[in-house]
Amino acid sequence: MIPSLASRHSWFEATARARLAGLLDPGSFAEILPPAESQPSPHLAMLDLPGAFDDGVVVCYGQLEKKPIFAIAQEGQFMGGAVGEIHGAKIVGLLRRAVQEKPAAVLFLIDSGGVRLHEANAGLIAISEIMRAVLDARAAGVPVIALVGGSCGAFGGMGIVAKLCSAIIISEEGRLALSGPEVIETVAGVEEFDAKDRALVWRVTGGKHRYLMGDCAELVEDDIPAFRTGVAKLLAGWQEAAPGLAQLRASQQVLENRLAAYATYRDGLQVWAALGIARPDSVPLLDRDSLVALKEGLPT
Amino acid sequence: METLDFRFASKPVSRVADPALCGVVGSGNLEILIKTGSEPAACRVSIKTSARGFGDTWQAVLGSFAAGHAAGGTEIAINDMGATPAVVTLRLAQALAEYQGGAQ
């Protein structure tokens, strides 16, 4: 028997509340607008759909290694973690409060396909308000750390939000992209992208690929304590320049270089070969530690 | 969506903690919120469910729960996304245990 399986607390399979319970210091979780005080989405009720008391997101105060922390956790099992009006307002409210109260960090446990289409414009506005609020928190000196490892990944508007955060911690199971696989297949055809090819989906959007590309600060195991350790490590020596134009231009240049280098490739395997990985086909089977070692040995 | 309301006689619940939440409104699942109610010897249940036409089944499952557990003095709110009776029974027992202060 593999001991790691018995003692593992999978992030992927946990609910939003279970993730928070394992992430924060025991007893420090203090929810804002708990289910008994919140109300389900009126938009979903109008469409004759049952809502959730917390509208699919938990916002709270807490501590991590005794540092004051704010946290946001999306529930991927409820409507794909999609952002509706109340869901978005809870997130924006917490981020604005972070600007005033300056916690050590805001942890953003993203598990979402993006905008909740049932709420149309209200959902779109909510996403754009979240983007603004993330940048405002960072400008106020509060790091916003995205944690991506849920079944819905971070897609659509929430993919953009993830990239606006100060840093991203991801697991192999996590995924990060703009248009989701099914969306690409629907719009551009199965020849362009086969959403049923799960291995391909992970080679293009999955945690290992994102980490190899430098999109994520850390790759961690699919384990709640591993995410906790990852956050603690990241915050221990945290330093971030205030977001500015020069930094944005540099990021833009990195993206343009990436486009020029890889735009014609159709699979992560080709990109990894171009990165200088001798045996790209071995990457999907590497464990987390081996992959991190592999990345550290790559030419920069 | 269908909204259902029930009231069952039930023995008063022994110990009362904060409002308790259990489960997630996901496919084949449901969330249950238990709050303190006004009638010590009755359990009131309000359900919003995506599956129409299962009122009799809810009545039977909840009736059996209220008879088998001391759940008097509670108000139970349920958001359901097509959970089976077995899942409903499990979640009700979990939620009540949490309401009585037994952390999961």
From TrEMBL, chain A:
Residues annotated as domain CoA carboxyltransferase N-terminal: 1-243
Alphabetical list of InterPro entries matching this protein: AcCoA_carboxyl_beta, Acetyl_CoA_COase_Trfase_b_su, ClpP/crotonase-like_dom_sf, COA_CT_N, Malonate_beta
GO MF annotations in UniProt: acetyl-CoA carboxylase activity; carboxy-lyase activity; transferase activity
Presence of keyword Transferase: yes
GO cellular component: acetyl-CoA carboxylase complex
Keywords linked to the UniProt accession: Transferase
GO biological process, one term: malonyl-CoA biosynthetic process
Keyword Transferase: yes
Pfam family, one: Carboxyl_trans
Domain of life of the native organism: Bacteria
NCBIfam families tied to this protein: malonate_beta, PRK07189.1
Protein name, UniProt field: Biotin-independent malonate decarboxylase subunit beta
Provenance organism: Azonexus hydrophilus
Lineage: Bacteria, Pseudomonadati, Pseudomonadota, Betaproteobacteria, Rhodocyclales
From TrEMBL, chain B:
Subcellular location: Cytoplasm
Keyword Nucleotide-binding belongs to the record: no
Sequence positions bearing O-(phosphoribosyl dephospho-coenzyme A)serine: 27
UniProt keywords, alphabetically: Cytoplasm, Phosphoprotein
Record has Cytoplasm as a keyword: yes
GO CC annotations on file: cytoplasm
Modification after translation (UniProt): Covalently binds the prosthetic group of malonate decarboxylase.
Name recorded for this polypeptide: Malonate decarboxylase acyl carrier protein
Species of origin: Azonexus hydrophilus
